[in-house]
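Hello,

Our lab assistant flagged a job as stuck in the queue for most of the afternoon. It eventually completed. Since we weren't sure the result was trustworthy after the delay, we are filing this so someone can double-check. Below is the sequence as submitted and the structure that was eventually returned. Let us know if re-running is recommended.
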Amino acid sequence: MATTNLSAYDKTTIPNGKQFRFGIVVSEWNENITQGLLEGAKSTLLEHDVNPENIVVWDVPGSYELIYGSKKMQEQNVDVVIAIGSVIQGETKHFDFVCEAVAQGIKDLNITRDVPVIFCVLTDNNMQQAIDRSGGKFGNKGVEAAVAALKMAMLQKNA
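-- returned structure --
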């Protein structure tokens, strides 16, 4: 569990994003959380000189659908995909199945395809934890995902 600011990073160590194109796939489920994560990711990419036209955003119904959406986004001439979702623990095992499937699905895309997918899926015990990590007291995991995306775009270019 994050106990430090997810938005804190050394801006001097982040590659310039001007030459890259990013795809962001966002779950509509827990939209109040995922939209905060999206805003954090987009603002960070823009801060690092990514052209607004080089940020493609697609919505999918839920976190489970992030896998298929990310796979299709990888085919859209992007350098990196950011998968944004929020799964909050409920009273059933549904939480466990969704979290496991999404983590494994995104891992599979990373090892079988050439376009990196950044995992920006909050898996929290309650709504307050999600709020705290999507622009609240622990910062914004979307910022952290965008930083990772910029670094992975540069790695992909130089590999």
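-- support follow-up --
The delay was a queue issue, not a problem with the job. The result is valid. The chain is about 45% helix and 20% strand. Strands lie at 22-27, 55-60, 80-88, 117-124, 134-136, 139-140.
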